[in-house]
Amino acid sequence: MAQKGPGRYYRKGISLFELTRQFPDETSATEWFESVFWAKGRTCPRCEGCNTYATKGNGNQMPYRCRDCKRYFSVRTGTVLESSNLPLQKWVWAIFLEITSLKGVSSMKLHRDLEIRQATAWHMLHRIREGLLPEIMGFFEGPVEVDEAYLGGLEKNKHEDKKLNAGRGTVGKTAVLGVKDRKTNKIRAEVIPDTTKPVIQQIVNDTRSEDAMVYTDEHLSYEGLTNRTSVNHSQKQWAVSTALGDLAHTNGIESFWAVLKRAYHGTYHHLSKKHLNRYVTQFSGKHNLRDHDIIDQMAMIARGMVGKWLRYKDLVA
């Protein structure tokens, strides 16, 4: 029986032993993906027709055929799994390891755990991140907490030819903006080109409803936002009372930054600017799924892989 997740009495977890019992072989993994992708019945990923049938023969890589478009397909067709030769059982394990690792799982660890090449594991994890891309959630009703963070190495630790010699602090780092809705506990976060007022306020206003309260720190780029209450961190002010009786603070979104930065330093050690937004999306997506049972989180990630394509050569280009 599935165990309750730690810290979430209403969320069912899955132990490694339970996962092994549920997915003992390739057949069980294939059947699970089919139940997730085709919850309302098998459909052709080419033409979306329902008039399909199973072909004869064992070991057929395309075990189904559509009577409408006459094309063969499998459960991998039309998903990020399509170009992968890895067993689906390993894909189930990879999704499980990623969703149950608070600070993520590195490609080095995954390649050892699944006995695959490190480059394959790296590509595999990026395709899993495709399943964590943000869904359409609508406007946050608020109150919302807004804060920015900076990710990247310290200037003093860089090689001489990599140093910008332009000061300290945020120099050479990449800015990320996060918005957390207190009502739903959902988070939206993304890499931003800079922290100027037009960039930040455009994202905030595109994320929240017009009358939502906004809680920020004293950063000048937040000035002018409607319904804004700020705390002055430079004066060691961490929370202030509002007219509605709430406490205005940014502790919630800062907790998210803490997890992301621990993953940066403790798991990945380096995140390139090119792929940084994929990692930010990964952690905001995991945060938004965490109230669900583990098996449901895995299914949501799998469903997010449908209709997407991510080639290795595009990642390294």
Helix content bin: 25-40%
Q: Can you list the strand order of the major beta sheet?
A: 8-7-6-9-10
Structural class assignment? alpha+beta
Number of DSSP helical runs: 10
Unreliable stretches: 1-7
Q: What general outline do the C-alpha atoms trace? A: elongated
Mind summarizing the main beta sheet? 5 strands, mixed
Q: Distance between the terminal alpha carbons, to the nearest Å?
A: 45 Å
Summary of the model, kept short:
With 317 residues, this protein is of the alpha+beta class. It has helices at 16-22, 26-37, 88-100, 107-114, 118-130, 197-207, 251-268, 276-289, 294-304, 312-316; strands spanning 3-4, 12-13, 52-54, 64-66, 72-73, 144-151, 174-181, 187-191, 214-216, 228-230, 240-241, 247-248.
Topology (elements, then pairings):
Layout: E1 3-4, E2 12-13, H1 16-22, H2 26-37, E3 52-54, E4 64-66, E5 72-73, H3 88-100, H4 107-114, H5 118-130, E6 144-151, E7 174-181, E8 187-191, H6 197-207, E9 214-216, E10 228-230, E11 240-241, E12 247-248, H7 251-268, H8 276-289, H9 294-304, H10 312-316
Parallel strand pairs: 6-9, 9-10
Antiparallel strand pairs: 1-2, 3-4, 4-5, 6-7, 7-8, 11-12
Helix pairs in contact: 2-3, 3-9, 4-5
